[in-house]
Design goal:
Helix 4 packs parallel to helix 5 and helix 6 runs parallel beside helix 8. By secondary structure, this protein is an alpha/beta fold. The longest helix has 21 residues. Strands 3-2-1-4-5-7 form a 6-stranded parallel β-sheet, sandwiched between helices. Strands 6-8-12 form a 3-stranded parallel β-sheet. The chain binds (3R)-3-hydroxy-L-norvaline. The site of (3R)-3-hydroxy-L-norvaline (VAH) has 12 residues, from strand 9.
Length: about 300
């Protein structure tokens, strides 16, 4: 039975839906800070309001629901993290450390914890960033994600805990809204294109970033978690990649559907965060170890996003 912490977030909603479709609604327990469950999850399975850093409350759910796996998605992302560094560190790290400890105590069979390409910094090779390279994160979010990867590897080596992780690129989804990320422009742009046929990007036009459609990210997560343990060669997070594009390129892909859509640029504090990240990622390890392959490119994603958002 799976417990999802942070089930109402951008990834959480989609992962909860996908796991419930796979294992049955009652076998996937959703939880988040908010008192009301996300509308898309309402009535489809158990929900608890819980703070992922309150390990006693989390342990109570684990015992009550006989949980055997935890997916810990609760976190403050890059842009929010820069506004409240110590809170971001506290939420991102204390939730993880307590869940890892609980995993050992309760002998959980598997734990999932997302990392991000945000672990890479300005000293990392920017193109085709390898799985193993210089990793010097410059945001609190990136620092917490890399530190978290090292803790996951520690708990696997020391206690044999089967904890797995992925370095997600920017994720684009329509079912759930992103929150506090630097790549969120790539979600906002579709909503604005349909509403106003115009969008002002907070990243400059040639800011190339690794990106992925949410369907690919969810499928990759489930494929990673279901891979036989002996295929998991890295207990740091796996690089995961699909495509890279810039605001100018995503705007051009939208203009193929909405010819009079226009984009303007007003870079803000998030530009410096984006500039510290790679432009493209080498995910050869994921492709070799557990046969990862992406399915959505920019054109296919834009068609899907506009179709679903205008339905
Ligand atoms: C963020 N969406 O912008 C997240 C992600 C690589 C970006 O980690 O912070």
């Amino acid at each position: 039975k799976i417990l999802i912490l942070g089930a109402c977030g951008q990834i959480g909603v989609e992962l909860t839906l996908a796991l419930r479709a796979r294992f049955g609604d009652s076998n996937v327990v959703a939880s988040d800070l908010r008192p009301e469950v996300h509308p898309l999850l309402a009535g489809t399975g158990p929900y608890y309001t819980v703070d992922a850093t309150d390990i006693k409350a989390v342990a109570d759910i684990v015992n009550k629901e006989k949980i055997t796996q935890i997916y810990l998605l609760a976190a403050l992302l890059s842009a929010t993290g820069e506004k409240m560094p110590l809170k971001a560190w506290d939420i991102n790290m204390n939730s993880l450390l307590q869940v890892l400890e609980l995993g050992v105590e309760q002998k959980l069979t598997k734990i999932y914890w997302p990392s991000s390409i945000a672990v890479f910094g300005t000293t990392t090779p920017k193109q085709d960033t390898p799985q193993k390279t210089v990793v010097e994160p410059t945001t609190v979010y990136g620092i917490s994600k890399y530190a978290g990867e090292l803790w996951c590897q520690y708990y696997n080596r020391r206690y044999g805990l089967d904890v797995r992780s992925l370095r997600y690129p920017g994720l684009i989804s329509w079912k759930s809204a992103p929150g506090g990320g630097t790549t969120d422009y790539a979600v906002e742009i579709y909503h604005e294109a349909l509403k106003h046929k115009a969008y002002t990007s907070f990243l400059s036009e040639n800011t190339y970033l690794p990106m992925m459609y949410m369907d690919d990210a969810i499928r990759g997560t489930i494929e990673l978690m279901e891979a036989p343990e002996e295929q998991i060669k890295s207990r740091m997070a796996y690089n995961l990649s699909a495509m890279s594009f810039s605001p100018a390129e995503i705007a051009a892909s939208i203009q193929k559907h909405i010819p009079d859509f226009s984009i303007s640029y007003a870079p803000d504090f998030r530009q410096a965060i984006a500039d510290s990240w790679p432009s493209s990622i080498d995910d050869a390890a994921a492709r070799a170890d557990w046969h990862w392959k992406h399915e959505f490119d920019l054109e296919k994603m834009t068609a899907e996003m506009l179709q679903h958002l205008s339905a």
